[in-house]
């Protein structure tokens, strides 16, 4: 038998362009980077170049690429039992749920597994509606919750616009964001107080008895990595209690070590009723997401059936990857590493770049979850790309960084620096040096 030949990068590219329909893009304009391998913090492109993956793909390879323990766990599970329906019990699924509840706040009891983030959000909303007997939802404009019908309606960013067919009962609000305050606030305290007053007014004017759920990201990610001011999430909790609304925190992007804590909500001592997760739970080696359910909500379905399920809920391959990911993160102190890198290298390094590059208007984040916001003018804060759009200047910086070996996530006028939680100080410094050079592309 002839030895198998590896297709060339050009052949892979051409085949992709011929047959793959790409997300969020005009098909004629997509220009995908061919990736043929990866390890740790690096991906390898079709020409054999090693790039620092400071995107963590879509912010999910928290344990890094091709971690041998996770790869081995998936292979072992595949040999033993590839798949089993959700109604049966299986060690990988049960152990994954146990490990997830172990990192959840006090009072959380059960895990409902999904295939990713959007369906986790769908089910959390459904649980809230069934629990309260109400329908309406509240979610933030600067937020992203997924691309299925309910999740895209809850999403506040411009990707919602073309898919929003008059989403009945989906009400959006402004969450705090001091750099571009909607409330003319000058301090975090003012921003927090005014954002909570705004949310209260919305609830009162819309009619409190109509709301089933408030959903928000503990730290909004895709929309710009904006840690809320101290007291905001506690204030939302108080409003939920006052008006009988279920509080859902979306930890799909910020969870599982990314912010230097297991869950981002730990930074704020916030305890919601439901928590959605995906991505970092198993570093995306096999698709997995889910809902962590507090005792109060779990009890609702103790004697009454929960009317929902998914064929692949708690898929053994995905759960085996979750077990290996979480256990390895514990054993190798990966969450502490994320906190340390953020405090000692990535955060200070970005702040230092901002001192030398006036195009950086704002630097924010924590752990290995950082954004820089680029502006044409620091005083007016005019963004370097319009809201909902892109610009040649942003593209020039991204492509110079990529040519020099750095991948970042780009959204509108922002670059997000979100490496795997295992990133070293040395790799972080290399990335900062490449970014420093790329900012000179302007
Ligand atoms: N919620 C948040 C906070 C997210 O960041 C994302 C994905 N970026 C989702 C939900 C949707 O997850 P998925 O793409 O797995 O459906």
Automatic annotation (TrEMBL):
GO cellular component: cytosol
Segments forming a coiled coil: none
Keywords carried by this UniProt record: Aminotransferase, Pyridoxal phosphate, Transferase
GO molecular function term, any single one: pyridoxal phosphate binding
Pfam families: Aminotran_3
Xref: InterPro entries: Aminotrans_3, Aminotrans_3_PPA_site, PyrdxlP-dep_Trfase, PyrdxlP-dep_Trfase_major, PyrdxlP-dep_Trfase_small
Gene3D superfamilies referenced in this protein's UniProt entry, alphabetically: Aspartate Aminotransferase, domain 1, Type I PLP-dependent aspartate aminotransferase-like (Major domain)
Top-rank taxon: Bacteria
Family that this chain belongs to: Belongs to the class-III pyridoxal-phosphate-dependent aminotransferase family.
Name of the protein described by the UniProt record: Aspartate aminotransferase family protein
């Amino acid at each position: 038998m002839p030895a198998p030949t590896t297709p060339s990068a050009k052949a892979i590219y051409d085949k992709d362009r011929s047959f793959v329909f790409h997300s969020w893009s005009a098909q004629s304009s997509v220009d995908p980077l061919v990736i043929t391998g990866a390890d740790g913090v690096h991906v390898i492109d079709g020409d054999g170049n090693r790039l620092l993956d400071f995107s963590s793909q879509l912010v999910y390879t928290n344990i890094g690429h091709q971690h041998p323990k996770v790869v081995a766990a998936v292979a072992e599970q595949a040999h033993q039992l590839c798949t089993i329906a959700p109604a049966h019990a299986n060690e990988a699924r049960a152990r994954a749920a146990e490990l997830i509840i172990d990192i959840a706040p006090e009072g959380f009891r059960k895990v409902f597994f999904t295939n990713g983030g959007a369906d986790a959000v769908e089910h959390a909303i459904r649980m809230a509606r069934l629990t309260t007997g109400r329908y309406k939802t509240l979610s933030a404009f600067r937020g992203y919750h997924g691309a299925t019908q309910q999740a895209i309606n809850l999403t506040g960013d411009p990707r919602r616009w073309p898919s929003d067919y008059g989403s009945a009962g989906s009400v959006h609000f402004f969450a705090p964001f001091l750099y571009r305050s909607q409330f003319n606030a000058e301090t975090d305290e003012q921003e927090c107080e005014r954002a909570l007053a705004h949310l209260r007014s919305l609830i009162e004017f819309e009619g409190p008895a109509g709301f089933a759920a408030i959903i928000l990201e503990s730290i909004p990610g895709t929309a710009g990595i904006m840690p809320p001011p101290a007291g905001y999430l506690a204030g939302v909790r108080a409003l939920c209690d006052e008006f009988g609304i279920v509080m859902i925190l979306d930890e799909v992007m910020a969870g599982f070590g990314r912010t230097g804590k297991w869950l981002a909500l730990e930074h704020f001592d916030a305890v919601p009723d439901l928590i959605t997760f995906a991505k970092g739970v198993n570093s995306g080696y096999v698709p997995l997401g889910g809902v962590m359910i507090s005792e109060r909500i779990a009890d609702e379905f103790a004697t009454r059936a929960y009317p929902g399920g998914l064929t692949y809920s708690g898929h053994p391959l995905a759960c085996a990857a979750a077990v290996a990911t979480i256990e390895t993160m514990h054993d190798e102190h990966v969450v502490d590493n994320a906190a340390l890198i953020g405090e000692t290298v990535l955060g200070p390094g970005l702040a230092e770049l901002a001192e030398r590059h006036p195009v950086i208007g704002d630097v924010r984040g924590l752990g290995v979850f950082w954004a820089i916001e680029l502006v044409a003018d620091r005083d007016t804060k005019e963004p370097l790309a319009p809201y909902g759009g892109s610009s040649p200047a942003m593209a020039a910086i991204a492509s110079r960084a990529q040519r020099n070996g750095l991948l970042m996530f780009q959204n509108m006028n922002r670059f997000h620096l979100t490496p795997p939680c295992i990133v070293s100080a040395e790799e972080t410094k290399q990335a900062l040096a490449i970014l420093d050079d790329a900012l000179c592309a302007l």
